[in-house]
Write a structure and sequence with these properties.
The structure is a homodimer of 320-residue chains. The first copy, chain A, has 320 residues and is of the alpha/beta class. In chain A, 47% of the residues lie in helices and 12% in strands. Chain A has helices at residues 23-34, 48-56, 67-70, 86-93, 111-117, 164-176, 186-212, 219-224, 230-236, 241-250, 252-274, 278-297, 315-318; strands spanning 13-19, 38-44, 62-64, 76-79, 102-105, 126-127, 129-132, 153-157, 180-183. Chain A has a six-stranded parallel sheet with strand order 3-2-1-4-5-6.
Chain lengths: 320, 320
């Protein structure tokens, strides 16, 4: 209760175990304490440095090397590690989960996560996979902040036989972290996120790689003149490499399908450029504005020009 | 002189003619007045609405429909229209340019611009092509602001026989608008910008188009879950369609070359995903962080997570 001295309500969960305390895990800790949702937070990490730092930051009252120790007595367990590690974690913690506990996760893919976790969940424990669609390009326990989920969507992908009461509780938990909650099937999630997140990251990583390996343009030139558009891509290409490796390895079909579409459309644009077909280019560029407007209307991005980043960039000039 | 009541220095140019007053033209007006660089600013636009608005905003003391009227008496003329219109503008204004005047432009391609403008410049008038690498996704006379060029690079691409004194003056003009100035050949400019600006815009337009034409994912879902990365691409895909059409039509070779590289690299990534080659993915994703760090060190982007845009986005939540 010391995490929540001002709230008169009892916390929703007496003990939250965060298996992993990177950007998302640490943000859950901040946001859960902001909302007074949990009595106590414990965590686990395979890295002694991360464990030490998480305790220093007050993300958890106690950090464990072994996730099976962290889940003891926890009524809410959230896996916040790269999804490639989930199968091993689930196998380790399975026998130590409390009866009635809710187990969830924050992975960016869902079918593979259900495949990897569900078999290790004992009878009487409620597993509901989840994915907060929120993040920054930073990672690690210092990167988290309480506002990360505010106004962002959290997608839950319960199996058909999921416990209704556990689902309702998990929904309320995410809403009180600041999110809106959407329910969908794991397969559909993976298809939607392939186009809204996975392929964008892949092509951002790819163009940064392409730019770094040119003979006729130096890296220094790429950096100097990046304000022409390239720098926008480098932000998401600075995201955690292991997390993203695991996303692509675990959402292969949907990513390859969306990538096929992307490449097909790109060839059409390439031909329009080659043959000087200005009408096709102009129409397509005009159409693209509609989706931007929709995103701003849905409060999923800032309406300010240039992401409102002027205050941060151009500092060189004002510091002269 | 009324534009610059506080400066004791005489303005660098007595009359600046802006041929086009969209985002860049209007920003030059604001920045030139901020620095007291010009005695008077006039402009031209084919749109009566734009002319009216530019006068209302004080971007120019007088706006003309005919660019040849705007350049009379101007010692600095800057073309700020879509580059596809340059040949016709240059032909129109050529006979009316003042002896000793400097003619420049702000187009995002340079070889085609030199090809289109240079033949129309009379003896005794100094043509030096230029490109401020700065912008936002917004367009039109209302989009400009004085700080747009602060800490951004402006590339000048003088021909070999360019007048040294005119080049020095134009360099100083851009420096006083807030830019750093770099000199390079038109061909090299077009190669550098193909990778740092043109191809990024093309793939941003392309993924927005791909996302808008899926059968299994709705536009509404794309918008809702865009915070996973996609929304970053929609910003530059909201840029002016005519300007960008003209860029691609006028930098065909360099764009097709860089696009070829991009597609080749993307196929490599696609194969790594198909065959589950996590090591290749992780290495490439790790390497991509280096360029981001370089961009931040070179003050070409904000170091704040998520472009510092939290204050603008997530407003939905805080407004509840």
């Amino acid at each position: 209760m010391s995490d929540n001295p001002t709230s008169a309500e009892a916390p929703m969960f007496k003990r939250l175990a965060l298996i992993g305390v990177g950007l998302i895990g640490s943000s859950i800790s901040h946001a859960a304490r902001r909302a007074g949702l949990v009595g106590e937070i414990v965590g686990s990490s395979p890295s002694s440095e991360t464990r030490k730092r998480a305790e220093e930051l007050g993300l958890a009252t106690k950090m464990y090397a072994d996730p099976s120790e962290a889940v003891r007595g926890a009524d809410l367990v959230i896996l916040c590690a790269p999804v490639g590690a989930y199968a091993a974690i689930a196998k380790t913690i399975g026998p130590h989960l409390e009866q009635g506990a809710i187990v969830s996760d924050v992975g960016s893919v869902k079918s593979a996560v259900v495949r990897d976790i569900a078999p290790h969940i004992p009878e009487g424990v409620h597993f509901i996979a989840g994915h907060p669609v929120a993040g920054t390009e930073q990672s690690g326990p210092d990167a988290g902040f309480a506002e990360l989920f505010d106004g962002r969507w959290c997608i839950l992908t319960p199996e058909a036989d999921a416990d209704e009461s556990a689902l309702a509780q998990l929904r309320t938990f995410w809403e009180r972290l600041g999110s809106d909650v959407e329910i969908m099937s794991p397969d559909h999630h993976d298809m939607v996120l392939a186009i809204t997140s996975h392929v964008p990251h892949l092509i951002a990583y790819n163009i940064v790689n392409t730019a770094a390996h040119l003979e006729r343009v130096t890296d220094k030139e790429v950096i100097k003149f990046s304000a022409g558009g390239f720098r926008d891509f480098t932000r998401i290409a600075a995201s955690d490499p292991v997390m993203w490796r695991d996303v692509f390895l675990n959402n292969k079909e949907a990513v390859l399908e969306m990538l096929g579409r992307f490449s097909e459309d790109l060839v059409t644009l390439q031909r329009a450029i080659r043959f000087g077909d200005g009408a096709t280019l102009e129409k397509l560029f005009t159409d693209a504005r509609t989706i931007r407007r929709g995103i701003i209307q849905a409060s999923q991005d800032t309406p300010q020009p240039d992401f409102g980043r002027r205050a941060g960039a151009g500092a060189k000039s004002s510091a002269r």
